[in-house]
Amino acid sequence: MKLTALTLATLVLGAIAFAQEEATVQGGATGTVSIHSKGADVRNVIHDLFQQVERNYVLEPNVRFVLYLSLNDLEFEEALQLVCKLSSLDFEIQNGIYFVGKKKVGSGSPATQPTTQPLKPKGKLDPAVLNKRVTTRFDKIDLRQLMSELGKQTGISIEVDATVPSYKLDAYLIDTSLKYALDVITGATKLKFEFTDNLSIRLAKAEKVGVSLVSGS
User: Fold this and answer.
1) Radius of gyration over alpha carbons of the chain, in Å?
2) Is residue 116 part of a domain?
3) Which of 130, 150, 194, 200 could form a disulfide with 179 if both were Cys (CB 3.0 to 4.6 A apart)?
4) Which domain holds residue 82?
5) 109: Cβ–Cβ under 8 A, 6 or more apart, which residues?
6) Is 85 helix (H, G, I), strand (E, B) or coil?
7) pLDDT tens per residue across span 191-203
8) 57 phi/psi in degrees, rounded to 5
């Protein structure tokens, strides 16, 4: 008799615990839904939610999450979004079917990081850089490509002003100083070169006001 009473009490307690984990989903008169869950599995909540509104869904396997919530008179999709958010789930609709699954890593929009332009170095180059040696053997090379090549050989940034045309040059300069090379090139193109305040050399039109010419033989 005692054993029977103990068994009955155990069954009653189990039934109470099971009842506490059930979710209640109710449809409102205006097409809204209400959800009340005290520890129910998210799978049961989602199933009851879709069953209430009579919509088709597919749930990804191995989805488990315990929900505690109470939502009243919400639109169906708003309620679904809240359930998914709490459970780290996501959904998409294909051909009228809701596919619900675990939220993919990186599926959210990444935070936009402000972009900052690197600051150019300030100051003038030491005039001694003009003594660096260069060698070129080019036929009909573009002026800007030629300056890029001289820059690579000397480790100096050599710019060409945007107003300078795209001259094509024959450049045969064998083991000459950078200064001699620039003198020859600017003499042939009627340009001049200057030291900028950004640790570089710039070629510009000779008539440009405010350009300090670096002269020499």
Assistant:
1) 39
2) no
3) 130
4) 8-102
5) none
6) helix
7) 999 999 988 999 9
8) -150, 160
